[in-house]
Amino acid sequence: MWGTLTDISLHGCYVEMQTTFPVDTKVNLVLKSFGVRIQAPGTVRASYPFLGMGICFAEIEPAQQLQLRQLLDALTGHATVSNGVSAEENSMKDTVASADARAFLDEIAEFFQKNQMLSRDQFHEIAKRVRRS
Q1: Beta-strand runs (E) in 10-87
Q2: Tens-digit pLDDT profile for residues 91-105
């Protein structure tokens, strides 16, 4: 079965999917992201039919644990993993990194006072406006 990984830590993850399993169901996960592949046993801890499941990792093998740490580092920007990131995405990262954090948050908050959804491009435009010199 396929799902979308929307949250992950060293201890578990949340997978969005329509077909869910009951709490306490044992599962075998294969997670793929940033060119990293992790196989991990787990147990369903929260289940929301037609939405997704919270899964707690069980005993992950040491090699898989290392892969998980590398994936988390890549997702938090603390490591570089060969992922084929485009120059445009790198530019967006640089723009966001150079934004004035306080001004950026203020602009985002102001945006959401008038709108319900923020596109990636709108996010990038806000970051450009509040760049530090």
Answers
A1: 12-16, 26-33, 36-48, 52-57
A2: 677 777 788 888 888
Place of tokens 């919270």: 54
User: Residues 89, 77: contact at Cβ < 8 Å?
Assistant: no
Residues found in the chain: 133
Could you report how far apart the first and last alpha carbons of the chain are, in Å?
A: 48
Contact 14, 53 (CB under 8 A): yes
Q: For residue 95, with 0-12 CB atoms within 10 Å meaning exposed, 13-18 middle and 19 or more buried, which class applies?
A: middle
Decide: residue 50, CB within 10 A, 0-12 exposed, 13-18 middle, 19+ buried.
exposed
Tell me the pLDDT tens digit for each residue of 37-67. 889 999 999 999 999 999 999 988 888 888 8
Tokens (6 digits) for 121: 């491009």
Answering whether pTM is above 0.85, one says no
CATH numbers and ranges of domains, the chain: 4-75 (2.40.10.220), 87-129 (no CATH)
Given a cut of 80, whether residue 82 has pLDDT beyond it is: no
The tokens of 18 are what? 């329509």
